[in-house]
Automatic annotation (TrEMBL):
Similarity-based family: Belongs to the prefoldin subunit beta family.
GO cellular component: cytoplasm; prefoldin complex
Protein name, per record: Uncharacterized protein
GO molecular function: protein folding chaperone; unfolded protein binding
InterPro entries, A to Z: PFD_beta-like (IPR002777), Prefoldin (IPR009053)
Residues forming coiled coils: 17-51, 137-164
Pfam families tied to this protein: Prefoldin_2
Source superkingdom: Eukaryota
Classification via Gene3D superfamilies: 1.10.287.370
Keywords: Chaperone, Coiled coil
Record organism: Ficus carica (Common fig)
Family matches, as SUPFAM superfamilies: Prefoldin
One BP term from GO: response to cold
Length: 178
Protein backbone atom coordinates (compact mmCIF):
# COMPACT_ATOMS: atom_id res chain seq x y z
CA UNK A 1 0.00 0.00 0.00
CA UNK A 2 2.80 2.41 0.90
CA UNK A 3 4.51 1.51 -2.37
CA UNK A 4 1.42 2.55 -4.36
CA UNK A 5 1.07 5.73 -2.30
CA UNK A 6 4.69 6.65 -3.05
CA UNK A 7 4.16 6.01 -6.77
CA UNK A 8 1.10 8.26 -6.75
CA UNK A 9 3.03 10.93 -4.86
CA UNK A 10 5.87 10.65 -7.39
CA UNK A 11 3.48 11.10 -10.31
CA UNK A 12 1.96 14.17 -8.64
CA UNK A 13 5.41 15.66 -8.02
CA UNK A 14 6.43 14.89 -11.59
CA UNK A 15 3.31 16.61 -12.96
CA UNK A 16 3.97 19.62 -10.74
CA UNK A 17 7.60 19.81 -11.94
CA UNK A 18 6.47 19.78 -15.57
CA UNK A 19 3.86 22.46 -14.88
CA UNK A 20 6.34 24.73 -13.09
CA UNK A 21 8.98 24.24 -15.78
CA UNK A 22 6.47 25.25 -18.46
CA UNK A 23 5.39 28.35 -16.55
CA UNK A 24 9.00 29.29 -15.88
CA UNK A 25 9.89 28.98 -19.55
CA UNK A 26 6.88 31.12 -20.49
CA UNK A 27 7.89 33.84 -18.00
CA UNK A 28 11.48 33.78 -19.28
CA UNK A 29 10.26 34.18 -22.87
CA UNK A 30 8.02 37.08 -21.84
CA UNK A 31 10.96 38.70 -20.06
CA UNK A 32 13.12 38.30 -23.16
CA UNK A 33 10.41 39.94 -25.30
CA UNK A 34 10.01 42.83 -22.87
CA UNK A 35 13.79 43.31 -22.74
CA UNK A 36 13.75 43.62 -26.54
CA UNK A 37 10.90 46.15 -26.40
CA UNK A 38 12.76 48.12 -23.75
CA UNK A 39 15.95 48.14 -25.81
CA UNK A 40 14.11 49.27 -28.97
CA UNK A 41 12.42 52.08 -27.03
CA UNK A 42 15.77 53.14 -25.53
CA UNK A 43 17.55 53.17 -28.89
CA UNK A 44 14.68 55.06 -30.53
CA UNK A 45 14.77 57.62 -27.71
CA UNK A 46 18.52 58.04 -28.19
CA UNK A 47 17.98 58.79 -31.88
CA UNK A 48 15.06 61.14 -31.22
CA UNK A 49 17.02 63.11 -28.63
CA UNK A 50 19.69 63.91 -31.22
CA UNK A 51 17.11 65.63 -33.45
CA UNK A 52 16.14 69.27 -33.13
CA UNK A 53 12.62 69.98 -31.90
CA UNK A 54 11.43 71.30 -35.27
CA UNK A 55 12.47 68.17 -37.19
CA UNK A 56 9.70 66.37 -39.05
CA UNK A 57 9.29 62.94 -37.52
CA UNK A 58 7.15 60.12 -38.82
CA UNK A 59 5.49 57.38 -36.89
CA UNK A 60 4.96 54.01 -38.54
CA UNK A 61 1.44 52.72 -38.14
CA UNK A 62 0.11 49.20 -38.11
CA UNK A 63 -2.95 48.70 -40.24
CA UNK A 64 -5.84 46.67 -38.90
CA UNK A 65 -6.64 43.90 -41.35
CA UNK A 66 -9.66 42.80 -39.39
CA UNK A 67 -11.79 44.11 -42.25
CA UNK A 68 -10.27 41.51 -44.54
CA UNK A 69 -11.09 38.65 -42.20
CA UNK A 70 -14.62 40.00 -41.71
CA UNK A 71 -15.15 40.23 -45.48
CA UNK A 72 -13.99 36.68 -46.06
CA UNK A 73 -16.01 35.37 -43.11
CA UNK A 74 -19.15 37.22 -44.15
CA UNK A 75 -18.70 36.02 -47.73
CA UNK A 76 -18.47 32.44 -46.50
CA UNK A 77 -21.42 32.91 -44.13
CA UNK A 78 -23.67 34.51 -46.73
CA UNK A 79 -22.81 31.82 -49.24
CA UNK A 80 -23.41 29.12 -46.65
CA UNK A 81 -26.80 30.50 -45.65
CA UNK A 82 -28.17 30.53 -49.17
CA UNK A 83 -29.82 27.38 -50.29
CA UNK A 84 -28.68 26.82 -53.82
CA UNK A 85 -26.56 24.31 -55.60
CA UNK A 86 -23.07 25.52 -56.40
CA UNK A 87 -22.14 24.60 -59.94
CA UNK A 88 -18.65 24.71 -61.46
CA UNK A 89 -18.90 28.37 -62.53
CA UNK A 90 -20.09 29.45 -59.06
CA UNK A 91 -17.16 27.65 -57.45
CA UNK A 92 -14.80 29.35 -59.89
CA UNK A 93 -16.29 32.79 -59.06
CA UNK A 94 -15.94 32.13 -55.34
CA UNK A 95 -12.28 31.17 -55.82
CA UNK A 96 -11.65 34.34 -57.85
CA UNK A 97 -13.23 36.51 -55.15
CA UNK A 98 -11.19 34.79 -52.44
CA UNK A 99 -7.99 35.24 -54.44
CA UNK A 100 -8.84 38.91 -55.02
CA UNK A 101 -9.28 39.45 -51.28
CA UNK A 102 -5.95 37.71 -50.66
CA UNK A 103 -4.13 39.90 -53.22
CA UNK A 104 -5.64 43.06 -51.70
CA UNK A 105 -4.57 41.90 -48.25
CA UNK A 106 -1.00 41.12 -49.32
CA UNK A 107 -0.59 44.41 -51.21
CA UNK A 108 -1.95 46.42 -48.30
CA UNK A 109 0.34 44.59 -45.87
CA UNK A 110 3.37 45.27 -48.05
CA UNK A 111 2.66 49.01 -48.19
CA UNK A 112 4.42 51.11 -45.56
CA UNK A 113 2.25 53.55 -43.68
CA UNK A 114 3.63 56.56 -41.84
CA UNK A 115 2.06 59.54 -40.14
CA UNK A 116 3.69 62.91 -39.50
CA UNK A 117 3.97 63.45 -35.73
CA UNK A 118 5.71 66.10 -33.64
CA UNK A 119 8.96 64.90 -32.10
CA UNK A 120 7.52 65.40 -28.61
CA UNK A 121 4.69 62.93 -29.30
CA UNK A 122 7.09 60.23 -30.47
CA UNK A 123 9.43 60.91 -27.56
CA UNK A 124 6.58 60.62 -25.05
CA UNK A 125 5.38 57.37 -26.63
CA UNK A 126 8.86 55.84 -26.50
CA UNK A 127 9.36 56.96 -22.90
CA UNK A 128 6.04 55.35 -22.00
CA UNK A 129 7.00 52.12 -23.80
CA UNK A 130 10.31 52.13 -21.92
CA UNK A 131 8.57 52.62 -18.55
CA UNK A 132 5.90 50.02 -19.33
CA UNK A 133 8.60 47.52 -20.29
CA UNK A 134 10.51 48.16 -17.07
CA UNK A 135 7.33 47.66 -15.03
CA UNK A 136 6.49 44.45 -16.87
CA UNK A 137 10.04 43.13 -16.47
CA UNK A 138 9.93 43.85 -12.74
CA UNK A 139 6.63 42.01 -12.40
CA UNK A 140 7.89 39.10 -14.49
CA UNK A 141 11.07 38.94 -12.39
CA UNK A 142 8.91 38.54 -9.27
CA UNK A 143 6.95 35.77 -10.98
CA UNK A 144 10.18 34.08 -12.02
CA UNK A 145 11.55 34.17 -8.47
CA UNK A 146 8.28 32.76 -7.11
CA UNK A 147 8.32 29.93 -9.66
CA UNK A 148 11.97 29.16 -8.90
CA UNK A 149 11.09 28.86 -5.19
CA UNK A 150 8.20 26.55 -6.07
CA UNK A 151 10.54 24.46 -8.23
CA UNK A 152 13.05 24.19 -5.36
CA UNK A 153 10.24 23.08 -3.01
CA UNK A 154 9.08 20.42 -5.43
CA UNK A 155 12.67 19.21 -5.94
CA UNK A 156 13.06 18.92 -2.15
CA UNK A 157 9.79 16.98 -1.95
CA UNK A 158 11.08 14.63 -4.64
CA UNK A 159 14.41 14.10 -2.83
CA UNK A 160 12.55 13.41 0.41
CA UNK A 161 10.23 10.93 -1.28
CA UNK A 162 13.11 9.09 -2.96
CA UNK A 163 15.11 8.94 0.28
CA UNK A 164 12.07 7.41 2.06
CA UNK A 165 11.57 4.76 -0.63
CA UNK A 166 14.88 3.53 -2.11
CA UNK A 167 12.96 0.92 -4.11
CA UNK A 168 11.07 3.68 -5.92
CA UNK A 169 14.35 5.49 -6.55
CA UNK A 170 15.88 2.32 -8.09
CA UNK A 171 12.75 1.78 -10.16
CA UNK A 172 12.86 5.34 -11.51
CA UNK A 173 16.58 5.10 -12.25
CA UNK A 174 16.07 1.87 -14.19
CA UNK A 175 13.45 3.42 -16.49
CA UNK A 176 14.62 4.23 -20.01
CA UNK A 177 13.55 7.33 -21.86
CA UNK A 178 11.90 6.54 -25.17
Amino acid sequence: MADETNRTAFLEIQARMIEIAGKLKQVQNQMRNKEGEKKRAFLTLEELRQLSDDTNTYKSIVLDFGWFVKCVNSLGTSLGEREFQINQSSQHEIMQISQLFLVIHIKAAAACRFVLEPKSVLTNEQEQKFKDSETAISSLQSSKEYLEKQRAEVENNLRELLSQDPGLARQIMSMTVM
